[in-house]
User: Fold this.
Amino acid sequence: MSSGPFITAPRTAAPFQSSAARRWAIWLVALACAGLTGCDRGTAPAGGGAPGGPGAGGPPPAMPVTAITVQPQRVPLLIETVGQAEGSREIEVRARVTGILERRLFKEGERVAAGAALYRIERAPFENALAQARASVAQERARVEQARREALRLKPLADKQAISRREYDDAASAVSTTEAALATAQARVRDAELNLSYTSVTAPIAGVTGRSQRSEGALVSPGADGLLTTIAQTDPIWVRFAFSEAEFARLKSGKSPEVSVSTPDGRPLAGKGRLNFAATSVDTRLGTIALRAEFANPKLAILPGQFLQASVNVGERDAFLVPQKAVMQNDQGKFVWTVGADGKATPSPVQAGEWLGTDWVIEGGLKAGDRVIVDNLIKIRPGAPVQPRAPGEKPPDAKAPDGNGPDAKKKSDAKAPDAPKR
Assistant:
C-alpha cells in the first residue's frame, strides 16, 4: 500500500444548514401561503361573499326601474284594417278609329283637364272620307230637286188626264226616294265628321294619366287592342277595405264614424274621411263586408292602388294606455310588470286591445293607480325587489362595495429577508 499523500473530496454542507438559508426558505413558504389565501378570497363561491353582498345569502339589492302610474281615460274605439286606394273615377282611353298614331300630347303621370288633347291620329284618310260624303250629299240634293221639278211638271197633266195616273205616281215616288237618299248621304257626312273628330283623342274626365300603352307611329284600331292610356280621378280618392261581421256590428252601433288612413310605417295621410259605401251582403268566400271611404286628395298624397292602414273611429271607451315596450307576452298571454305594495315586481296579466300611437290600449287587468314598469324588463324576475322612479328621474348613484376601492387596499409591511450567502 502506497504511503503517498491521501487526497479527500471536500464535504458539502447539509441542506438548510445555514441560518440564512433557513430564513429564506421560511419566507418563501409564507409568501406562497399568502398568495393562495388571496386567490381563495377573490374566487369565493356565491354563498360565501361579504355580509349583505350578492353572494352573502342575504336579500339582493333593489333594481332601479322606471315606472308610470296609470289612470283610466277616454280613448277612441278604433277598428283597424288594411285598405287599398282607387280613383273615384277610373276610365280607359281607347282608340275609336283605325289609323296611325301621329303624336302623344301629354306627359305620362301628370294631371290633365277634362277635354285636354291626349293623342292625334292621322287625319288625312278621314278628311277625304268627309269630302266624299259631302259630295254625295250635293249629288243627292240635285237629284231631289230634279225629281221635284218632274213631279210638278206632271201634276197638271195628270189633273187634265193628259197622262196616265201611273206616270205621275212614279214621279211623286221618285221625289220621296231621292229625299231618302239625301238623308242617307247627310248621315254619312255626320259619320265622317265624327270619325274625323275621333282622330283627336281627348280626356273625358280630369285626373292623373297613366302610362301610354301605344307609342307614336303605331297602328291603332278600336277593339281589344285599342287601349291607349288610363285616367284616374284622384280628388276625391276612395279607399276600399272590409270588416268582419263583429266589427261591422260595432260600426253600426256608432254614430257618423270618422275614417283615417296612414302608411304602413304609421305616417298619417289625407286627414279625415267619411264612409260613402257599405255593402248590403256578406262575401261568402271571406265572411267580410266591403266598405269604402272618401278622402280629399288635392296634393296627390294618396296614389291609386296604394295599400294603406285604415282606422275607423266608432266611438270612445274607458281604458288604460301603456307604452308598447312595457307589454310582454308569454305562453299564457300578454302581461305587464307592476310594482307591488311591498316594492317587488309582479307580473300582471292584461287584456290588450289595439295600438294607439306608441301605446297599447289595455282593456282589462289593471286598476287606477297601478305602477307599470317600462324598462329593465328582461332583468326582472317575479318577486324581485325594485326601486321605482318616475320617467325622466335619474337613478341613484351606485356606491362602490366596501373593500374593493383603491383606498381599501392594504400595503404589506413584510420585508423579504436577505438572500443567503453562498
Summary: The domain at 231-315 is CATH 2.40.30.170 (Elongation Factor Tu (Ef-tu); domain 3).
